[in-house]
């Protein structure tokens, strides 16, 4: 089992700007990628363009030990 990167533990962060961009963040409480409205600047790295990208980084498939 791979541990997700630290960025996946960061809270949702809209940022101070006023844009309304649909982005996705990994909610570490529900262990799911969820939509949020991003303001367009600052925020943090827990911010993905698509659900698929969020899942790929924060919920990688389990890896089998080949030994």
Automatic annotation (TrEMBL):
<keyword id="KW-1015">Disulfide bond</keyword>
<dbReference type="Pfam" id="PF00014">
    <property type="entry name" value="Kunitz_BPTI"/>
</dbReference>
<feature type="domain" description="BPTI/Kunitz inhibitor">
    <location>
        <begin position="8"/>
        <end position="58"/>
    </location>
</feature>
<protein>
    <recommendedName>
        <fullName>BPTI/Kunitz inhibitor domain-containing protein</fullName>
    </recommendedName>
</protein>
<dbReference type="GO" id="GO:0004867">
    <property type="term" value="F:serine-type endopeptidase inhibitor activity"/>
</dbReference>
<dbReference type="InterPro" id="IPR002223">
    <property type="entry name" value="Kunitz_BPTI"/>
</dbReference>
<dbReference type="GO" id="GO:0005615">
    <property type="term" value="C:extracellular space"/>
</dbReference>
<keyword id="KW-0646">Protease inhibitor</keyword>
<dbReference type="InterPro" id="IPR050098">
    <property type="entry name" value="TFPI/VKTCI-like"/>
</dbReference>
<dbReference type="InterPro" id="IPR036880">
    <property type="entry name" value="Kunitz_BPTI_sf"/>
</dbReference>
<dbReference type="InterPro" id="IPR020901">
    <property type="entry name" value="Prtase_inh_Kunz-CS"/>
</dbReference>
<keyword id="KW-0722">Serine protease inhibitor</keyword>
